[in-house]
Amino acid sequence: MKRSGPIRRNGPMRRSNPERRARALAEAFGDQAARCRASACCVPCCSAGPPCDPHHEPTRASGGRDADTVPLCRPHHEERHRTGVKTFQRAHGIDLLAIARGMSETL
Fold first, then answer.
1. Mapping DSSP to helix (H, G, I), strand (E, B) and coil, where does residue 14 land?
2. Cis status, amide bond into 75, omega within 30 of 0
């Protein structure tokens, strides 16, 4: 059977399946990342509550493990990647690696 025109859709196409994405994130990053998403931002002056982004410290590209994640709200997560680890930690007076190791020990 030959079609005479383009296929019509009743709405915009969804680009991803939310359930599959959540399952893939849970499998890829483990329990520590799930705890980070459910936690508030670890920057002391931040009032952002959950959900937060799990940030790997050191980053995964630099050899970071899945257990070394800290919860950062989206603005602080973007700031950390934009400014670098030393500048970010100095500006906020925190040690991200110590926070990550402390969180992974309580699992």
1. coil
2. no
Q: In whole angstroms, give the CA distance from residue 82 to residue 40.
A: 21
When pLDDT is averaged across residues 3-12 and rounded to a whole number, the result is 64
- 54 CA to centre of own chain: 3
Whether residue 29 lies inside any domain: the answer is no
Q: Does any domain span residue 77?
A: yes
Q: Which domain holds residue 49?
A: 39-105
How far is C-alpha 12 from the geometric centre of its chain's CA atoms? 27
Q: In b/e form, how buried is each residue of 79-102, taking b as 16+ CB within 10 angstroms?
A: bbeeeebeebbeebeeebeebbee
**Domains identified in the chain, total number:** 1
The size of the chain, in residues, is: 107
**What single DSSP character describes residue 53?**
E
Tens-digit pLDDT profile for residues 36-88 = 888 889 999 888 888 888 888 887 777 777 778 889 999 999 999 999 889 99
